[in-house]
Amino acid sequence: MSGLPIEKLPLVYVITGAFSIVSGPLIGRASDALGKFKVFAFGCARDHRDGGDLHASERQPLWVLVAVIVGLQIGIFSRMISASALMSALPKPSDRGLIHVHQLFAASKFPAASPPWLRA
């Protein structure tokens, strides 16, 4: 028999679930304190590393599997939490009309791709 025995699977779910319960609020606080994009970049780098470790490894002991899965969950939550905070953030009042300037610039550079109401 190769791989993880089915009897050990609930243990993996309990341990990784407990870590996800604890890590979610901590990642949210880190996103507020350190910056949303920094936490997002950390999550991307962590998942890149742990994903490579998980797929390039041979058969490992249970604790290594749990550690890699917990690391992947921390990376995934770092990306999800900080990305949702980035997308829901309001721009500063001084930047709120900036999108129209970008649209006008794009329309002047690429007139065929601009909306009809911006074409001269």
Describe this protein's structure:
With 120 residues, this protein is mainly alpha-helical. It folds into 2 domains: 6-89; 93-120, no CATH class. Helices cover 72% and strands 0% of the residues. The radius of gyration is 22 Å and the shape is elongated. The protein starts with 8 loop residues before the first helix and ends in an 11-residue tail after the last helix. The model has no long low-confidence stretch (mean pLDDT 79).
String of helices and strands: HHHH
Radius of gyration: 22 Å
Number of helices: 4
First and last CA, distance: 71 Å
Concise description?
This protein is an all-alpha fold and 120 residues long.
Task: Give the helices and strands, then pairings.
Elements: H1 9-34, H2 36-56, H3 62-88, H4 98-109
Key terms for this structure?
mainly alpha; 120 residues; 2 domains
